[in-house]
Write a structure and sequence with these properties.
Blueprint: E1 14-18, H1 26-38, E2 42-45, H2 60-72, E3 76-81, H3 88-91, H4 98-102, E4 106-109, H5 114-123, E5 127-129, H6 142-152, E6 158-162, E7 170-180, H7 181-187, E8 200-206, H8 210-222, E9 231-238, H9 251-259, E10 266-268, E11 281-283, E12 286-292, E13 295-300
Parallel strand pairs: 1-2, 1-3, 3-4, 4-5, 7-8, 8-9, 9-10
Antiparallel strand pairs: 5-11, 6-13, 7-12, 12-13
Domain LD-carboxypeptidase N-terminal: 15-130
Family: Belongs to the peptidase S66 family.
Organism: Hymenobacter guriensis
Length: 301
């Protein structure tokens, strides 16, 4: 059954910023609020912003209650998670999506927000993996922010990626699924776990040890999540760590060796993840991936 897409935003719509994971102050969010207002949107700062419980944006109950209120409020047409870090898996099982299902709205973010993307996809709804408000004004990130705007407002997007020596050529069509590799592993076997069969998987991560990237890829492979993929996008693996005895492979080489076991097309170097070029992707939307000798193209169908 096709996934359900929330309606595009329109000028005058209200959007909420919440913290489902790490804390973010109003001062840190001020520039993003100004940008959203320049798009013609009205911004609501949820109760989980500008508060702190250790590293979190309030304790679990504050973050759960805020997300629930924004999901249930019919006036709110999109929810932007302020930043990632860690915390969304702690509250996801206490969220009731029944009212959201009657009137879906966009949920956007990345990193720890992979939990929400996977959970919503399992329920049959699309969401946006994209840059978060805390990163709206990082140097070199204007294109990423604009890709989020275009996606939220229903404008067409098409991504072209240069050739990479580890690409696997071919064409694939399928719904997009994925996000942060370590979060996808964490979700395995939970109520937020999602099927990858017949879909185009995208992966990214940050600060992971090389051996841990291999371990997580072994896990994905052993659980069958690579076997029936339609295609694979390999995004940024930022700041990989190594031990005193070198692991001997780059993140792309590690992932490539598992992808090579199968015949699906693979596009390395896709601009998604913890770097300034973090282009918005609609999780659950049907897309076509074409990987040729000259490079790769991803477009919605």
């Amino acid at each position: 059954m096709p996934t359900i897409s929330p309606a595009p935003l329109r000028s005058g719509d209200q959007v909420a910023i919440v913290c489902t994971a790490r804390k973010a102050s109003h001062e840190e969010l001020a520039a993003a609020v100004a940008t959203l207002e320049s798009w013609g949107l009205r911004v609501v700062l949820g109760e989980s912003t500008n508060v702190a419980h250790h590293q979190f944006g309030g304790d679990d109950e504050v973050r759960r209650r805020d997300l629930q209120q924004q999901l249930d409020n019919p006036a709110i047409r999109a929810i932007l998670v302020a930043r990632g870090g860690y915390g969304t898996p702690r509250i996801i099982d206490q969220i009731d999506f029944s009212r959201f299902g009657q009137d879906p709205k966009w949920v956007a973010g990345f990193s720890d927000v992979t939990t929400l993307h996977s959970h919503l996809l399992r329920l049959g709804y699309q969401s946006i993996h994209g840059v978060m408000p805390i990163f709206f004004h990082q140097e070199g990130g204007a294109e990423s922010v604009d890709s989020l705007r275009r996606t939220l407002f229903g404008e067409a997007v098409r991504y072209e990626v240069p050739a990479h020596q580890q690409n696997q050529l071919g064409t694939a069509t399928g719904e997009l699924v994925g996000g942060n590799l370590s979060m996808l592993q964490t979700l395995t076997g939970t109520a937020s776990d999602v099927s990858t069969a017949g879909r185009i998987l995208f992966l990214e991560d940050i600060d992971e040890y090389l051996y841990a990237i291999d371990r997580m890829m072994v896990h994905l492979d052993r659980t069958g999540k690579l076997r029936e993929l339609a295609g694979l996008l390999v995004g940024h693996f930022t700041n990989p760590q190594d031990n005193a005895t070198p692991y001997g492979q780059t993140p792309n080489e590690i992932i490539g060796q598992y992808a090579a076991r199968y015949g699906f097309p693979v596009a390395h170097g896709f601009p998604v993840g913890h770097e300034a070029r973090n282009m918005a992707l609609v999780v659950g939307r049907e897309a076509r991936l074409t990987v040729a000798a000259a490079g790769a193209v991803l477009e919605y169908v």
